[in-house]
Specification:
mainly alpha; 5 helices; globular
């Protein structure tokens, strides 16, 4: 999965104007290769610090207060998409 494809999926399913994490989870559950690539990109996004809070606010239209808030959301999203966590 190219970074652009990951980013497009992220915006398509998780921006506030199109928020549907359940549909994204269904898509990922049905495609193990896509799921593995999406998860790797999501974890990299949360760990490398290249996605600033300002960029995340702009891209997703969320009110992240700081990097801890963004990091928690990314962890909660991973827990929901790839585990049994609640919808973030």
């Amino acid at each position: 999965m190219q970074d652009k494809e990951f980013y497009d999926l992220l915006l398509c399913y998780l921006a506030t104007d199109s928020y549907d994490p359940e549909a994204l989870k269904g898509l990922l559950t049905g495609d193990p290769k896509l799921s593995a690539a999406f998860r790797a990109n999501l974890q990299r996004l949360g760990s490398d610090g290249n996605w600033s809070v300002a960029a995340a606010r702009r891209d997703l239209n969320y009110g992240f207060r700081n990097s801890n808030d963004l990091g928690k959301w990314l962890l909660d999203l991973d827990s929901f998409l790839f585990g049994d966590g609640p919808v973030p």
